[in-house]
Amino acid sequence: QVQLVESGGGSVQAGGSLTLSCQASGKMFSINIIGWYRQAPGKQREPVARVSSGGTAIYSDSVKGRFTISRNNAGNMVYLQMSRLKPEDTAVYYCNAEVGAYGTDYWGQGTQVTVSS
User: Fold this and answer.
1) Which of 57, 60, 64 is nearest to 45 (CA)?
2) For residue 110, how many C-alpha atoms fall within 13 Å in the half-sphere facing its CB?
3) Judging by DSSP bridges, how do beta strands 67-71 and 91-99 pair with one another?
4) Per-residue model confidence as pLDDT tens digits over 80-106
5) Any idea what the Cα angle at residue 35 is, between residues 53 and 70, rounded to 5°?
6) How confident is the model over 1-40, as pLDDT tens digits?
7) How many Cα atoms are found within 13 Å in the side-chain-facing hemisphere of 36?
8) Confidence of residue 46 (pLDDT cuts 50, 70, 90)
9) For residues 45 and 55, is the Cβ–Cβ distance under 8 A?
10) How many other β-carbons are positioned within 10 Å of the β-carbon of residue 109?
11) Closest CA to 97 of 75, 64, 116, 82
């Protein structure tokens, strides 16, 4: 099993920046992909940025060029640096890990990001 704990959400004005952190614990060696999803009110949860165990990063088109995902060398911390934030980035952001041969999903509790215009 893998446990994920997010931190770093908050409120910011449009054009500002925030950095989210996700601390992973448990069977981290079995993580295939780890990253961030978000869910805005009334919308489905969507992927934002993810990084594979090999270090390949994948971004959604809506955040490409504005958000950067990174992982520390120990592999137990994942960061999402968000810049040039827009009101449409407002959502609950969830850390996600895809684990093991069956790709089991693990989720953090979520952290709120609010961007005001």
Assistant:
1) 60
2) 12
3) unpaired
4) 999 999 999 999 999 999 998 888 999
5) 70
6) 899 999 999 999 999 999 999 999 998 788 899 999 999 9
7) 35
8) very high
9) no
10) 10
11) 75
Amino acid code (one letter) for 113:
V
The two structure tokens encoding residue 60: 């959604």
Distances (CA, A) of 58 to 13, 15, 27, 81, 109: 26, 23, 23, 14, 22
Please, are residues 46 and 37 in contact by the beta-carbon 8 Å criterion?
A: yes
Burial tier of 101 (Cβ tally within 10 Å: 0-12, 13-18, 19+): exposed
